[in-house]
Amino acid sequence: MARIAGVDLPSEKRIEAALPYIYGIGATLAKKILADCSLDPNKRTKNLSEEEVNKLAREIEKYKVEGDLRRETQSNIKRLQEIASYRGLRHSKNLPVRGQRTRVNARTKRGKKVTIGTVRKEVTARMGTAPTGKSTKESGK
């Protein structure tokens, strides 16, 4: 198992598919890195030699990945919150930042749906409290 940038890459996967396990490296950047290192993208991670792993590690050091990238992202969000920009307020309230609608969607950002129903007459009768509001039919309007 190869360890690059503090991440253990899966040994059974092709190196092209294993590199995106590192935060900040996607499929496109993985292909570019492998081309720069002149490595076969179809080679399995377990079949890489020590020299090839070192070559990959040196190439990846040129990019901002893992902890540095996470830290920069968090500092950008914190800066937006401190200056109280619209985006910063949306981050603070845990709502979508980029203009998506929230009336029916945004479940991923807002969390699990909580249903708030009305209290039925039977439940209020058992609890010993009478409903206080009159309906419009009873008041004659």
UniProtKB/TrEMBL annotation:
Top-rank lineage group of the source organism: Bacteria
Gene name per UniProt: rpsM
One Gene Ontology MF term: structural constituent of ribosome
UniProt keyword terms in alphabetical order: Ribonucleoprotein, Ribosomal protein, RNA-binding, rRNA-binding, tRNA-binding
A Pfam short name: Ribosomal_S13
Protein's UniProt keywords contain Transport: no
Subunit structure: Part of the 30S ribosomal subunit. Forms a loose heterodimer with protein S19. Forms two bridges to the 50S subunit in the 70S ribosome.
Protein name from the UniProt record: Small ribosomal subunit protein uS13
Family designation: Belongs to the universal ribosomal protein uS13 family.
Function: Located at the top of the head of the 30S subunit, it contacts several helices of the 16S rRNA. In the 70S ribosome it contacts the 23S rRNA (bridge B1a) and protein L5 of the 50S subunit (bridge B1b), connecting the 2 subunits; these bridges are implicated in subunit movement. Contacts the tRNAs in the A and P-sites.
Keyword Ribosomal protein applies: yes
GO biological process: translation
Protein's organism: Candidatus Curtissbacteria bacterium RIFOXYA1_FULL_41_14
Gene Ontology cellular-component terms listed: cytosol; small ribosomal subunit
